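forwarding from the other thread:

> can someone predict this with zinc ion?

sure thing
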Amino acid sequence: MKFGIDIGHNCPPDTGAQGIKSEDSLTLDLGNRVIAKLKNLGHEVISCLPAKADTVKESLEQRCSTANAANVDIFVSIHFNSFNSQANGAEIFAMSEPGKKIAYSVLEEIIKLGFLNRSVKNGKHLFVLKHTNMPAILIEACFIDSQKDINLYNPEAMANAIVKGLTS
Ligand SMILES: [Zn+2]
């Protein structure tokens, strides 16, 4: 399989949320772990993180055009949530039916780590889901402003869960 892994933000002015931890540093670390693990399993991985962009829109456009040009089988955007320090748990956005199937598979594995199941949600408002040509998901792994989630979060376990969900 050929995966397009999109490490969220990390491309100023496209920067992530700040909570107890920084979304940029967590997505970069988690994304790199997912990429390494998929490659170890023999999958082809295209990193969709742009080297630079002048605007957020340009950053998002480049992520999609990289995935579309490489004709990846599945596009996976990795993010962390932030809200009011009380909200917690994992949710995954998808649009297409094949995308939702993959989303449920990944979410099931993340939930096993103890995170609240916030379910698979319709991501039709999300740029990278709308503008990619293949089944696509956007993972909100957990909340970076929730002490409960941060205490529970282990990058290696989260990466294993995502890879297991993507490949099972
Ligand atoms: Zn994000």
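The longest helix spans residues 23-40. thats all i got for now
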